[in-house]
């Protein structure tokens, strides 16, 4: 007699949502379209959206009993995630972003990788895409190793243990063990959670066969606000975990400081305050910004920048927008801490 195959574990998808009326429908549809044969539920933590998001979600919930909602009046992502996780009933948690769309085999492959590796959390590749010329330029920047610092989940890395994971497919018991997401951290909460998971003796695993489509911010102002807030919270995390932050997080603030120092030196040279050998020596500060500009030009006006010249010019402007916004925010966060900083790009304004 052939032994029965072990039952597949149930899966709880958790999605924090605030002002995502243009994206949440497709995010939910890709979850429901997973080819996973086990039992599933979808738990959405609803913030006080003002754009009709909650009405869209409630429509899905009324049509499918697997979809349930919890209220997240505080709006913060880690709070919403914890509310959804605590309301879940299955041993596997799949985090989903309202701006994301899962490939049909994502859940099945992720659970196979969890079983094969014994990891506590598995993540894959973020594939950013755009619907408008600007959003497409941001997506190309996201997908570039130069754009977001070369994290494994932006592609190009081999399968194996990782520092963190994009979104994540977790064992619920491990989340309970490490006491869930830290609700005092409003950005970078995933990196901090994975730090505690690894400190508890578990592994975080990167599997490049797992792909998630991500739709980045749609306007300059939202992009600046998002990256500035993220930089501020990264500065806060440096204050809390000084020696554990990878070097790549320090590149944008180093660029900002080099640019500021270059401006000061240039003004002093032009006004004649700085002359002689001191002027020559301090001119070395131009090297960093000059190297950045050369690299930016080479990347922007290659195929990586886009198929047409307008696309490449947008890419040329988007990349430093991301880096400088993040870098300025980082410096602010290191100096004074994050305090009550929120990502206002999610407010719908």
Q: CATH-wise, what's the superfamily of the largest domain?
A: Spore Coat Polysaccharide Biosynthesis Protein SpsA, Chain A
Just name the CATH architecture of the largest domain. Alpha-Beta Complex
Order of helices and strands: EHEHEHEEHEHHEEHHEHHHHH
Q: Strand content of the residues, in percent?
A: 15-25%
Number of discrete domains: 2
Indicate the low-confidence ranges by residue numbers: none
From the spread of the alpha carbons, the general shape counts as elongated
Gyration radius from CA atoms, angstroms:
22 Å
Q: Biggest sheet, open or closed, and with what strands and sense? A: 9 strands, mixed
What is the CATH class designation of the largest domain? Alpha Beta
CATH fold name of the largest domain: Spore Coat Polysaccharide Biosynthesis Protein SpsA, Chain A
Mean pLDDT: 92
Could you tell me the number of beta strands?
A: 9
Pfam family, one: Glycos_transf_2
Transmembrane segments: 249-270, 276-301, 313-335
GO molecular function: transferase activity
Protein name: Glycosyltransferase family 2 protein
């Amino acid at each position: 007699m052939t032994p029965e195959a072990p039952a597949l574990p149930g899966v709880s998808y958790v999605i924090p949502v605030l002002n995502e009326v243009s994206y949440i429908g497709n995010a939910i549809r890709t979850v429901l379209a997973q080819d996973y044969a086990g039992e599933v539920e979808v738990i959405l933590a609803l913030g006080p959206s003002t754009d009709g998001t909650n009405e869209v979600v409630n429509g899905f919930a009324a049509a499918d009993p697997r979809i349930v909602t919890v209220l997240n009046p505080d709006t913060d992502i880690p709070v919403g995630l914890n509310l959804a996780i605590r309301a879940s009933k299955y041993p596997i948690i799949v985090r989903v972003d309202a701006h994301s769309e899962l490939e049909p085999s994502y859940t099945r492959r992720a659970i196979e990788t969890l079983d094969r590796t014994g990891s506590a959390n598995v993540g894959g590749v973020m594939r950013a895409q755009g619907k408008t010329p600007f959003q497409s330029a941001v997506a190309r920047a996201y997908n570039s190793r130069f754009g977001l610092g070369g994290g494994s989940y932006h592609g190009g890395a081999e399968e194996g243990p990782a520092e963190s994971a994009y979104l994540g497919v977790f064992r619920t018991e491990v989340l309970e063990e490490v006491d869930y997401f830290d609700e005092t951290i409003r950005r970078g909460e995933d990196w901090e959670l994975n730090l505690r998971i690894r400190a508890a003796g578990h592994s975080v695993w990167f599997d490049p066969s797992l792909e998630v489509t991500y739709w980045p911010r749609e306007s300059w102002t939202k992009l600046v606000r998002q990256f500035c807030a993220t930089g501020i919270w990264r500065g806060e995390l440096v204050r809390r975990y000084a020696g554990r932050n990878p070097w790549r997080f320090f590149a944008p603030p180093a660029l900002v400081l080099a640019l500021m120092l270059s401006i000061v030196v240039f003004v002093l040279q032009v006004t004649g305050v700085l002359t002689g050998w001191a002027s020559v020596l301090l001119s070395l500060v131009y090297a960093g910004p000059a190297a950045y500009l050369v690299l930016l030009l080479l990347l922007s006006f290659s195929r990586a920048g886009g198929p047409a010249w307008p696309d490449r010019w947008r890419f040329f402007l988007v990349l430093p927008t991301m880096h400088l916004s993040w870098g300025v925010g980082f410096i602010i966060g290191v100096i004074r801490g994050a305090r009550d900083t929120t990502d206002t790009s999610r407010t719908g304004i």
